[in-house]
Amino acid sequence: MTGSDIAGLIAAGVFAVLVALLAIPIWKLGKVFDELRAAVKDVSDGTTPLLSEVTNTVATTNDQMLKVDGITTNVSDATANISALSSLTAATVGRPLIKVAAFSAGVRSVLATKPTGKGRRSR
């Protein structure tokens, strides 16, 4: 063997050791990618039913909101009708009662005054 053969063997040995040292991190990185793939698959498998449930919940909530909107409309109409009825009652009963109260107050004030015995004076 010549010196160049020995140098070639040493270089080949160093290259083999270098490949072996680089193979270990690459092997571990491959395991990390396997775990990552499994985690992504688990998340995907868990997310699909969850999205289906969320879709059903949103649809049910929309149906309930339509019902609440109808109830709110009916309550608004009932409130407007009660307000109109209250105004009508106040106008129908209130004004005559005010007139009767004013008349009775006038009669009481007339009856409460004591005659002084003097007649009216003309100016």
From TrEMBL:
One Pfam family recorded for the sequence: DUF948
Q: Which residue ranges traverse the bilayer?
A: 6-27
Report keywords, A-Z. Answer: Membrane, Transmembrane, Transmembrane helix
Q: Which InterPro entries match?
A: UPF0478
Protein name per the record: DUF948 domain-containing protein
**What is the organism field in this record?**
Paeniglutamicibacter gangotriensis Lz1y
